[in-house]
Each structure stands twice: as structure tokens, then as C-alpha cells.
Amino acid sequence: MLQKIKGLFIEEEGQGLSEYGLILAGIVVVAVSAVGILSGSLTGLFNDLKAKLDSAL
After folding, report:
1. CA dist., res. 22 & res. 29, Å (int)
2. I need a surface site. Which of 2, 15, 38, 40 has the fewest CB within 10 A?
3. Nearest Cα to Cα of residue 53 among 38, 14, 45
4. Under DSSP, is residue 54 helix (H, G, I), strand (E, B) or coil?
5. Mind listing the pLDDT tens digit for each residue in 15-25?
6. Per the domain annotation, does 8 fall within a domain?
7. Which three-class secondary structure state does DSSP give residue 15?
8. How far apart are CA 42 and CA 57, in angstroms?
9. Between these two residues, 2 and 12, which has the higher pLDDT value?
């Protein structure tokens, strides 16, 4: 039993997968932060675009 527990800490299988998971989590954090920061200006941009399209039609 103790050997199995030690084996879990020594074993390196799946290390690459967990590294990709951490990279993906970092990208998600950056993307969510960017959307949060830019949400005000994006809303204004889309409202201006909608107004121009409404006036053109």
C-alpha cells in the first residue's frame, strides 16, 4: 500500500496533460479578464454600429 502511494508521487505519466491543463487555465483567465476590461467599450461600439445600421435602413 505504501509503495503504491510513493509510486503516485514518483510516477510522471500524465505530467504533460496537467501542464497543458494549466496553460489552458491561464489562457481562460486572460480571456475572461480581457472581456471584463473591454466590455464597456465593446458595448459602446456595438451600440454605435446598431445606430448607424438603423439609420441606414
Report:
1. 11
2. 2
3. 45
4. helix
5. 777 888 899 99
6. no
7. helix
8. 23
9. 2
Give domain status of residue 57, yes or no: yes
Q: Describe the chain by its helix, strand, coil percentages, rounded to 5.
A: 90, 0, 10
How far is Cα 27 from Cα 38, in angstroms, rounded to an integer? 16
The single-letter DSSP state of residue 13 is: T
- Chain CA centroid to CA 12, Å: 26
Is residue 46 domain-resident? yes
Structural domain for 46, as ranges: 29-57
Answer yes or no: pTM beyond 0.85.
Answer: no
